[in-house]
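--- STAGE predict ---
source: upstream dedup step, 1 unique chain passed
mode: sequence only
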Amino acid sequence: MRLQNKVAIVTGAGSGFGEGIARRFAAEGARVVLADINEDAGRRVAAEIGDAALFVRADVSRDADVAALAQSAQTAFGGIDILINNAGYTHRNGPMLDVDEETFDRIYAVNVKSIYLGARHVVPCMRTRGGGVILNVASTAGVRPRPGLTWYNGSKGAAIVLTKSMAVELAPEKIRVVALNPVAGETGMLHLFMGEDTPEKRRQFVSTVPLGRLSRPADIANAALFLCSDEAEFLTGVCMEVDGGRCI
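--- STAGE serialize ---
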């Protein structure tokens, strides 16, 4: 098992990419702390995984919640080796000036501030373990931004730059920081990315992906597994596109 005896926190683990990552990590021997703002969804996934999983309700934009999340992982499993910053938020595809201030603030709180809060509360624990891995789920939107999702694009661009800067700063402490850039996939935010979820819109999105489909949770989970395993011990600052060729 590639993550035997590792302890991982996965945010946004009640559905989509986060659920896929949590399930894959548990199958590879990790003990997984699932965080989500949706308590019913998070508890369902944790129950289905079994004894290797613990659910903690958390709003990743709130310092107290992230502090409690980190403490819960240490209390339950004795430490933290991996942090997956997967929870995300977006606005509906449309003109940038139509996005209200409250939505803008929420996007940056969930997609960017959460990385800061995760580092604040998890890095000290990783230091006591002699190292660790932080994986930020960014997006192809931060690599090849397109009209209609401007403020979301910017938040994911920030996540990519933060990944690289954190990687350099934390490297002397054997804490690796990496990112994944998924293309749009089968998650709860897909209808927002497209503006509306119709067969025509799906065909339009799929036509921009050379390999001919949207991303799936398993695609992201498999890439996350590799980057967080010892097989990737010499990789840091990497922001890997998992996009079927979208960014070429």
